[in-house]
Amino acid sequence: MGNSALKAHLETAQKTGVFQLTGKGLAEFPEDLQKLTSNLRTIDLSNNKIELLPPLIGKFSFLKSLVLNNNKLTALPEELCKLKKLETLHLNGNHLRQLPAAFGQLAALKTLSLSGNQLRTVPTQLCGLRHLDVVDLSKNQIQNVPDTVGELQAIELNLNQNQISQISVQISHCPRLKVLRLEENCLELSMLPQSILSDSQISLLAVEGNLFEIKKLRELEGYDKYMERFTATKKKFA
Question: What does the pLDDT average to over 148-162?
Fold first, then answer.
């Protein structure tokens, strides 16, 4: 991509607050964006070949949305965690194994999408995020859901297409969790905490494609309580 094309994009971004440059084979984060640290609200660099997010990302203090789907990121810089206004972070289809230690400082984060990475566990840093609504951790290598999950504030947690065989009973204590997606994992019915059914806020539990028949789920104690929540929620959205 020529300099003049990039320049045109930068000029537009200066006016709109949006910098979008997708599918251009970019190997690195455009350094020239530094000139717009106080303008930009949205950066979308999806479908490129970016391997590294530079520390200067921490300077975009007004950034609300950062989209870097389908790149080659293997790690994220700690500086990312300085983005106090960031509400949306999409990092699907990268090679991330973990999140920065200070990730819990992204206080405004509402939507986090990490589908198709190499995470092996549900990152504990997510539990400090008070405004988190949707977390997508599908298509990773997660094998178990730890006790810390009970502090997660999300409304929807997507864990489809992982390798989960164990789930902490603490998941039923999530104060706002309404939608739990666990399709295509390695769960035996005995490993699904019954309290999810009998004693949680969860009103949509998606568990197709595990190591048990769905009709067996209906025989579990607490299933009728779950169905009450399911039906009440469905009415609300109907």
Answer: 97
